[in-house]
Every structure is written in C-alpha cells, then in structure tokens.
Amino acid sequence: MKRDGVITAAAVDDLIADGHIVLIFEDCVLKLDSWLAKHPGGRLAILHMVGKDATDEIKAYHTPATWKTMKAFRIGRKPPGVWTNKTPPIRGGIFQKQTPPPPSGASERTPTPPLGDFLASSTAAALPGTAGTGTDKDSARPVLADTADPAEDKNDDKKPKQPQGVWEVSDDPATPGKKVFVGDAAAFTDWAETQEVDRDQADYPSLDPAVQLDIQRKYEALHQRVRDEGFYNCPYLEYGKEIARYSLLFGTSMVALRHGWWMTSAFFLGLFWHQIMFSAHDAAHLAITGSFEVDSLLAMFVGDFCCGLSIGWWKSSHNVHHLITNHPEHDPDIQNVPLFATSPSFFRSIHSSYYDFTFAWDAVANVLVPFQQYTYYPVMGIARFNLYLLSWLHVLSAKSSSLGNSKAWWIRPVEILFMSCYWYIFGYLLLWRTLPTWTIRVAFVLVSHIVTMPLHVQITLSHWGMSTAELGEGESFAQRQLRTTMDVDCPAWMDFVHGGLQFQAVHHLFPRVPRHNLRRLQVLVRDFCESTKIPYTLLGFVEGNGKVLSRLEEVGEQVKHLVECQKFMAATGASGLH
To answer: What region holds the Cytochrome b5 heme-binding domain (predicted)?
Structure first.
C-alpha cells in the first residue's frame, strides 16, 4: 500500500474490521498498531479515536514536534473532502469488510497483528444498547423501546421510537395528582435519556456536517492564534509565587507540629496539599516545561511524593476524560455508582471501558442515589481516601506496566518509590512517631484530608452539572467540550484558590496551555462561542454548586420513578431492565 495513495473510506473500514488501529490526522490515514502499547497517554486514548478524524484532538494534546512524528505511521491519504467519522469499536461501532478478497494467487497486503486479546474482551465488544449495523453506528439520539419488528429497526436506527409506557396521574390517595410512568423500566430510561438529547439538540448548533465543519475550521483558526500569540509560553514567574505560597503553608504546618498544635498543623498541611496539586495538574499536562521527562518527574514529585497520589493513574483516566467527556460508559470521572449517578444511562448497568468493570444498578443504588444531593459534600470531604486506593491499584496493575515498552518505562518504579516515601514520612514518621495518641492521629488525618474537600468539589463542579447525552460522532471536538464543561466565574484575585480549574471549558479546548494564561484565553474562547453560536456556560461558584446539586436531584428523582417502574413490572410480570 503506497504511503501517498488515496485510501477510501471502505478500505479504512476493512482495516478496522481486521483489527487494525486506523484514524485520520489532517489528510493522512494513520495505522497505529505498533504504537498502541507504547503511547505514554495510554492505549484507550487511541482506541477512542479509531475511524475518526482525530486532527483536533491530536493537535490539542500534543506539541507541533509530536505532530511531525505522526507521519511515520502514515499508510496513505484520505479521500478529498470532509471525513465522515465512524464510531470506534470500543464505543460499540461494528465494522464489516466491504471489499471482496483478492483472487487466488494475487498478492495481498500483510496485516500487522490485530488487537487480539483486547478486541476479545468485553471492553471492545458492542456494549448493551450500542449495537450498530454495517460499518458505522452513528445514532443522533437514543432509540426507545418499541414493539415494532426488529428487522424494521435495522435499517432505520435513527428514527425515534415510542416507549412502552405512559405517564398517568396516580390514583393513590396519599399522592393525589402525582404523575407516574406506567410501563417498562427500560423504556423509562430511554425516555429520560431522550429528554436530555432533545434539550441539547435545541440548545446547541445542529449536527449538520456543514455547521460542524464551520465550527471545526473556526476552532483550528483559534488554535493557530493561541500558538501565535504565545499562550503556550509558561509564565515561570507565576510558579515562583506558587512555590513561595506552598513553602509558607508547609512551613506553617511544620512549625505548628513542632509546638504541639496538632489540629493547626493538620489544617495547614491540608491547605498545602490542596494548593500544590494544581501544579501537579499543570505538569501532568506538560504545560510547565513542555518536556515529557521533566514535567512527568515534576508531576510525580508533587503528586506521588508530596501528596501520595499516583500521577500515572490520574493521567491514564484524565486523558480519556478529556477525549470523551461525560460519556457514562467511557468517562471514568463520572462513573461513581452506587454513590452517585449523573446520567440516567447508569440505570442500564453499564460496562466501563476504562475500568473493564460493570457498574451494576442494584438495590443499593436505588437507596443511595435518590439522596445524592445530600451526600455529595460529605463524600467529597473524604474523597481523598478513595484516591489513595485507586493510586495503588493503578501502579500495581497491568495498566501501569503497559507503559513499559515506551519512553515512560521508568514512571512505574519511580511512582512506587515516591508513594512509598510519602507513606513512610506521613504515615510512619508523622502519624506514628510524632503524634502522641490514637485520638489525635485520627483527628489529624480527618482534618488534613477534609480541608482538601474544595479541590474535589472544584474537580466535579465543571462537569457533573453538564450534559451526559451522546449526540453522535458528527459532533465537533470543540462543541462536545463546551457542551459538557462549564467555567466558574470569580475575581482575578481568587484565581489561586481555584487553581485555574475554574477555567475548565477553556482548559478542555486547550489542555496544554498553562493555567496562569487561561484567564486571558477565556476572552478569545467567549468570542469563539459567540461566532459559532455554541452556548458558553459561565456560572459563579455558588451558582455552579447549585447546578450540580440540581442535576443530582434530577437524576435522584428519576431513580424514584425507576423504582416505581420496577414495582409495576413486578406486579404485571412485564419484562424490563432486570
């Protein structure tokens, strides 16, 4: 196959059907089979781009120097015109070979080894409710349950269906006038999902290819302006101020510890952890020096050594979060069942492609999720303990060792060393050797960890209140990021409190821009939104918290209706979700 020859869409489908990792970058068709296991950003980041034009994503997450290396994987050029995105296999896309096999004796291209074990696993199989037909599974909205002949649906999967159920006024004297969904629980889930899809289709630009192409081109022009105007240049003076603040907080904690002011020491240690993790975030995005080795080492020193949290785990999940933001089946940042559910899609007991684990919707979820708006802040207060667990599970798992064949081979042993040092210093020298009693030890741990709660609230604030609907593969990168992410408004003098995470919408469009430049860049992003008619969500901190709580309450109310549907099924013997 000639590297400069045109490869048709059908030929790309054939390659993907054979298990090859093929995507589009600019006008090139790339085959990344040999790079999949070596990618420092993790294999999932690539698998979510299979069959798609990934130009905007690649340029957003990589430096121009890395763009040039992409050409080494080129196997040809895409056909002229706009590429029609396919649904990647990991997201349920089904690819079937379209071109006939060559006649006997004719030369054939020699395929590189297929994905093998991965495609055989449940994460690559078509997930429940996502089966497609032909070579692409592009659906602009969820398909509701119907009694129609399945054979008819096969050729008309974009046509909205009617659910097996209706809303009726309850005849229960205890709840006069209350509307109850009478029918199949699965149909109720379809209905709930469709409400969100309908809202997004009404509020955001059309998925018409011409409209999305215009958005894509304006985003590319904006990105070029971001590069030309130096937004990627790191303001090192600001990091000098950061180091001074970190040193002051840590020093205050140690002075208080020396004088036996245990809770004061714990409070300032928590503030130190809260503030310094913002720099770990920057370094993990290669936004400080731009060097993979230097920034990775900085991120591990801050995250693993100073805070006991695996940056490798964070990058592995965070890269996927950035690419497929707020997708219930694929974004690990919103997969928190049974404690929290931000989408009715979780009612289906979805399988996570990141964790390779099924989040089963069960009786526990039925009990906890209706009250999630009340448990949100208490859980955020102790969320750090869960991060410790996830960090160690990552560094001891095959997911971490999969980086061993790339230039990131050294990350895993360094993470284990740094995290062990953290627990020796914090767990043994401070808690065990310095603090006098178990009561003080427990109180010290709780105070220092609860103080970091605003960080966990900040992380969830910009996404949990936003859309989780899937509008289809035709949606541009820029529109999806702005549809699923919001910014938090605050005075400039408070930027250090939020650590730049209040500019999440801007950050999701340009993840490598140092956070100290995001406030200036916000002006350009708002102009971009105005020109493309994409709503730009900007709320104050209190309003943003209210939006998240409202979303949690909305899904909680849906769960109550879901339980009523399940009771209806039990009473009528109807077939449904369980």
So the answer is: 23-79
